[in-house]
Structures are given as C-alpha cells and as structure tokens.
Design goal:
The chain has six helices and no strands. The chain has 104 residues and is mainly α. It has one domain.
C-alpha cells in the first residue's frame, strides 16, 4: 500500500458542493460581501460554503468544523492548496461576521 495515497469517504459533500457550483453560490457571496482579496487566502464565499456543507453533511459545532474536513478531500471541494487547518473556527466566524455586516 502506498502511504502517500489517502482515501476519503466524501458522502454527500460532493453533491452539496456541486449544487453550490450550479447556483453560483461562492461568486454571489463574494460579490455581496466586503473583503480584502490581498489579505484573505479564502474568500468569504468559500468559507461560507464550507459551513453550509458542514451543516448539511456533518453538523459539527463551529469549533470542530476543521476536524470534519480532515476526513474530506478539501482541495477538491475548495481548490488547490486549501487544507482543513484553514477552515478553523476563527476564519469561519469572520465569514459569518461579513455575512451579518452585509445584512442580506
């Protein structure tokens, strides 16, 4: 067995991600929320999509969302170079704050 190969059990996360892509969730959120592209590796749309996927597929408390994504193919869901560690509670809470500030 090759130790550099990791198997993931994605479950419904792939479906929820695809629905988000079909409706243009991330670009829509990014256009509605204020954020600094130079200071943020992940856009608020990406971070909120991570929360939506978690709520629909895992329902982890905010402080454990990072743990939920350790068993997911995070790069496939959110893009190259993204790790589960970047989906921590502080980053996700800031995205929720941006959503609140926009008062959609």
């Amino acid at each position: 067995m090759n130790p550099s190969v990791k198997a993931y059990s994605s479950g419904p996360t792939v479906l929820v991600n695809r629905i988000g892509q079909e409706i243009g969730l991330e670009p829509l959120l990014n256009s509605l929320l204020s954020w600094n592209q130079d200071r943020c590796k992940l856009s608020p749309g990406t971070r909120l999509k991570a929360l939506i996927i978690n709520v629909l597929c895992g329902k982890e408390p905010l402080y454990q969302v990072k743990r939920f994504y350790q068993d997911q193919d995070v790069e496939w869901l959110f893009g190259p170079g993204v790790t589960a560690n970047e989906l921590n509670d502080n980053v996700l809470a800031r995205a929720l704050n941006k959503l609140h500030e926009a008062t959609p």
